[in-house]
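Final report, Chapter 2: Outcomes

The project's central promise was a pipeline that accepts a single protein chain and returns its three-dimensional structure in a standardized token representation, suitable for archiving and comparison. That pipeline is now operational. To close this chapter, we reproduce one record exactly as it appears in the project archive, with the input sequence first and the structure output second.
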Amino acid sequence: MEGAPSAHLPPRPVTRGGSPVVPPLDAHIGILQGAATRHQSKSHGLELCQLRALIADQAGCCALCGGRLVSRKYHIDHDHNCCPAMFSCGRCVRGLLCSRCNTGIGLLNENPDLLSDKVVTYLRPLHIGEWFSTLRPGTPASVRVCNSSGCFCLCVCEFCDEILPLSRRKRKYCGSPECLRKKKAREKAHEKNKARPKGGYRRRRPYLSCDMCGVTGGSDIKSRLLVQRRKRDEGKALCVSCRSVVRAAA
């Protein structure tokens, strides 16, 4: 199988004194290349060999922070102005990021005024958006976007682009009346679409009437008023009682 780990990969790391032994860098790259499944490559328009080559080119580390990528938890970063969805065409793939850096770029909407020079340099070559045209050369990153633990602590409001501190609940909107009104309108529309049946509203079929006794059929089988049209009854619509009488006489 092409997507399965190859046989030359090293064995699973053993534990020594209760703590796992960190494998060497070459073995770590081999583990990541084995975890690169066909689904990960196809969702971003890459061949499996291209994704493995990208892992080896980055030495199994994040393109921004340099941290070692964890198997099956790294993200394939792409330009969302080219492909807004979670999948990409392959031409806008920028590199492999860890979960922290990938989430931080998304929370800040790739705003160059909030990102460091290293991140801006990483985003510049393949980015086709218009916000780079407003970036003045030599502008320092005046806003600190990370706290002491390295996690992103700022985000941008979804409605007015105001810079906000990121809370534990990850609320990405400010408390202004205009933004709250837009938020409630979006939630109301979401609840309305959620209440609508998936198959859409269907027109109720009219009940049939028995061709023998004239009773109108319903959906209650216990009342024996169910009227159906079957081929065995020569195309006639009969209720349960009349059908049993006709078939007993035959």
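Archive annotation: DSSP finds seven helices and eight strands in the chain.
This record, like all others produced under the grant, will remain available to the consortium after the project formally closes.
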